[in-house]
Amino acid sequence: MRYxxxxxxxxxxxxxxxxxxxPSGDVRLWAKLEDRNPTGSVKDRAAFFMIAxxxxxxxxxxxxxxxxxxxxxxxISLAMVARLRGYRLIVVMxxxxxxxxxxxxxxxxxxxxxxxxxGGSNEAVRVARQLAAEHPEWVMLYQYGNEANxxxxxxxxxxxxxxxxxxxxxxxxxxxxxxxxxGVGRYLREHKPDVKIxxxxxxxxxxxxxxxxxxxxxxPELYDESVLTTRFSVSSADALRRTRELIDAEGIFAGISAxxxxxxxxxxxxxxxxxxxxxxxxxxxxxxxxxxxxxxxYSGTLDEAExxxxxxxxx
Amino acid sequence: xxIEVRIPTILRxxxxxxxxxxxxxxxxxxxxTDLEQRHGGLRDRLVDDGGLRRFxxxxxxxxxxRFLAGLETxxxxxxxxxxxxxxxxxxx
Lengths: 315, 92
Fold this sequence. Notes:
The complex is a heterodimer of chains A (315) and B (92). Chain A is of the alpha/beta class. Chain A has ten helices and ten strands.
């Protein structure tokens, strides 16, 4: 396939069957390989759409500064697009994210401002909002509330999946900004009203939770609960175990959030089997495993890997 | 076989420090009532007049029971129920 430039090659990622992980010939799992995007993650779609929208609104000129709270992938995607378009990028990132992400961001020329590890992404959002208030000339795209984030998936990811899998019964993806689930979910519902939209939410250890106030739960502005059929909470241990299974059974080297999505997909598959209903379940693989190698997630026993992952953000 | 219930640190004062306990019942409501007999005070921390308390999340085999049938969600032997304080998860 030939494209005029890297950005034109965005999307149109493969949907591959998972025959060994599927429970039967009637209940099948499929993986949407979003690591096959320009910078290796699903976030390229949102980054491209958000920057294109800001350009359309006249918010960005060459030399403009873009500010964004992100634990990694969105920052890397924005950094690539910003580099090509001549913008400066400043990302606010929790300190407990992997070293690879920092190296990639710096490689593309982004500046990194750290936010306290204990607050996770919520704290990064708070710090970014404060910086945006101090620097009104900076443009915060704000992936958690930017309609172009969800629209990227409504216009590209959703149609691609439906075209490749017209018999789809379930769509499963990680719940972060909620952009993927909202965009794909709305598109699929319009065409397949009975489709089940399933969220996989990371469940971090109490080390991460314990430091937070339970009342300050942050809900992204994009989130509309009515789009979801159900929601899974996936522990680090289960996410790791499923990530290993993707490698062992299907040869797919994916990031840890993909393991979480697979865990929810297998949960829905088991329910379909129990109900005696056929199912075609598409699971979104948000990125490859490369950026998480230094976390130790892929080496040693599962218990060792889980211990090493304690306190780190993996989605 | 029974239903395994995982208890968060903040509620382990009701389970003598146990991380997980076992119970029986055909719905989540019955399960919580069964647990209350051995772990007095627990039910009140999970349930109020309106159903599950706002700042408590309960998962059946990792699935949020609010998207199932809440307290009326059917449960069976071999299931795992996880109780967590409600906090929005990490976002990307």
